[in-house]
Amino acid sequence: MVLERIAGSEPRLEENSQPEIDVKTTPIQVKYPPVYAVDIYRSLSMLLQSDVGARDKIEGPALEALKEFLDMLYEVLPASQEYKAHLSEISVWLNSKTSITGQEWVAYLEGIQFPTYKGPFIACNGSKPHFRGYPCGLWTLFHALTVEQYLLSSSGPDHQVDSVAHALNRFVPQFFSCSYCAFHFALNTANVVRPGESILPENRVTPNPHELVLNESVIPTLPKAPETPKDTVLWLNILHNRVNKHLAGQPSEDPTAPKIQFPPSYLCPACWSQSSTGELELGKTPETEESLFQFLVERYRASSWKYVDLPTVFITNAVELKTEQPVPDLLIISIISVVLTILAAVILLAGLRFLCRRRRLFRRRRGQYTSGQSV
């Protein structure tokens, strides 16, 4: 991340005007890199291997949450057929169980050689080892899942409206290794819970009982539960910004990547409008909400990802041609060989044609010479 510190304050807008952002008046500008697939699969690998594997016993609501999360990944995650085949195999095995241990889970993944990515983060790499990284990659994964659900529902049969939102609401509180984060996520997605389900995980110890308690009066203030796949894309961004606001200024904040409302006004001016008090607001009008939605779809769709350093076992067929993997030497050699073979064939044909023409010319001249002698 690169920071540019510029003196000034957030610009105000004229009535009914679009935000016109002058970089000279923007306090801090973070140059956001694009989404890197390695960040997504690195965090997903850590989530499935480490966080799920750390549980002593997985049963009841936790087991059901794990099953639902895997089913959602199989349906929505942009991945190769090989990777999805592994997800399907895990689901079949898991559906035959009523209880497993974390050790059994890890052993099974290792037994089927489930693909994991252990390389470094790129866009999510923090300025220090304890900054960003895993949580950043998880949020990126979650955004990508909501966008992919929308794209799938737009191009084919409708998917269950809350399949991604509900799967995250069930899974994250049960398994995310940061227990404070897990409970905070559960409280901020409380209105996604279905009838009969517990809002807070019942089999985890509350890290801060005085803060992380359910307050029914807070539920109406939560981001509205999504009713369409498009709503889910916007819902998660509101939720993410809500968490950013809560964590801003905390020791966990990377100074090179401040916890701000995303996308900032200088990155998406059309996403912001002016409130009645003259402050900029994100996605609060129909026009700015639509701009925000289009921005999120374009940023997090798989065709916009960068595939540097990602092994091909993870890459979905739909985006393989957009990878930035170096072309293998063997392929280059094969292409050169084909080109040289074609070139040699062309030269050979040209040479044969030349010889044939010379031979016909020689015969013609010889015939003329013979006729002259007979006269």
What does this protein structure show overall?
This protein folds into 2 domains: 37-255 and 305-323, Four Helix Bundle (Hemerythrin (Met), subunit A) (Up-down Bundle), CATH 1.20.120.310; 263-300, no CATH class. Mean pLDDT is 83; it is low at 1-27 and 320-330. Strand 5 (272-274) and strand 6 (280-282) form a beta hairpin. The longest helix has 46 residues, at 329-374. A two-stranded antiparallel sheet has the order 1-2. It has helices spanning 37-53, 60-76, 81-95, 102-111, 134-155, 163-175, 179-188, 229-247, 286-300, 329-374; strands at residues 3-5, 28-30, 57-59, 99-101, 272-274, 280-282. By secondary structure, it is mostly helical. The N and C termini lie far apart (96 Å). Keywords: Disulfide bond, FAD, Flavoprotein, Membrane, Oxidoreductase, Signal, Transmembrane, Transmembrane helix. This is Sulfhydryl oxidase. It holds the Pfam family FAD_SOX. Its EC number is 1.8.3.2. Residues 127-261 form the ERV/ALR sulfhydryl oxidase domain.
Shape label: extended
The arrangement of helices and strands along the chain is: EEHEHHEHHHHHEEHH
CATH homologous superfamily label of the largest domain? ERV/ALR sulfhydryl oxidase domain
How many structural domains does the protein architecture include? Answer: 2
GO molecular function: flavin-dependent sulfhydryl oxidase activity; protein disulfide isomerase activity
Transmembrane segments: 330-356
Cofactor: FAD
EC number: 1.8.3.2
